[in-house]
Amino acid sequence: MTGRAGTALLVVDLQNDFCTGQVATARFGGSPAVLDAVVANTVRAVDRARHAGVEVVFVRFLGDPAHQGEAWRARDLRLGKRPKCLEGTWGARFHGVAPAPGERVFTKRARFDAFLDEGRGLEEHLRAGGTGHLVFAGLYADVCVDSTARTAFQKGFHITVLTDCTTSLHLPYDDVLRFMRVLYGARTTTGDDPEAWTAPGPAPVPASASAPASGTEEPCTP
């Protein structure tokens, strides 16, 4: 990923079943106003990105049982979860904002991580465009946003999370953001921060980062 400085905004799962209506509000458990604010702020972030010439990439989730693995179906049965964002339904449609002509959409079929798109090419698309910095918006910070950010970091992408454009589902939101900062080196800021839209500069390789001498092992610490 060396030398890739381009930025792309990744809008994750901004769909009806996650944002509005009975399914979303029952699942979220918090105030619907929080989800409304996430949507409104993400709409502004998308507009800001488009006007700045930053690529906007959309990710959507389809939860049809036909796409689910055995463990997924067993979890849903055990916990009484019903599938969401069924293909072709209102619940699967984008909410608040939709892709403009020419903007790419990548589909997760019963997956949290957008890079597990069954070969449909998110990583290849980003690399081909010279993208080295991903700005995240959408839902949820501790589920699909985190899963995708984790893989992106390990693949060499710089991570920015727009804190006013997402929220958490299961864990305290501040803890989720702190975790991302510590583990992925994520920049966490709001969509109106100009620095959110610029890729961090290249990090120098420390002299001590050379390979260990033969017969020695480095400690396994993240």
Task: Report what the structure shows.
The chain is globular. By secondary structure, the chain is of the alpha/beta class. It has a single domain (6-209), classed as Isochorismatase-like (Rossmann fold). A six-stranded parallel β-sheet has the order 3-2-1-4-5-6, sandwiched between helices. The longest helix has 21 residues, at 32-52. The model has no long low-confidence stretch (mean pLDDT 91). 33% of the residues lie in helices and 16% in strands. It is built from seven helices and six strands, in the order βαααβαβαβαβαβ.
CATH architecture descriptor name: 3-Layer(aba) Sandwich
**Shape annotation:** globular
Give the helix/strand class: alpha/beta
- Low-confidence parts: none
Radius of gyration: 18 Å
| Top-tier CATH class | Alpha Beta
Largest sheet: 6 strands, parallel
Question: What structural keywords apply?
Answer:
222 residues; single chain; 6-stranded parallel sheet; alpha/beta; 7 helices; Rossmann fold; globular; 16% strand
Outline the secondary-structure elements.
Elements: E1 6-12, H1 16-19, H2 21-28, H3 32-52, E2 55-62, H4 70-79, E3 105-109, H5 122-128, E4 131-138, H6 144-154, E5 158-162, H7 173-184, E6 187-189
Parallel strand pairs: 1-2, 1-4, 2-3, 4-5, 5-6
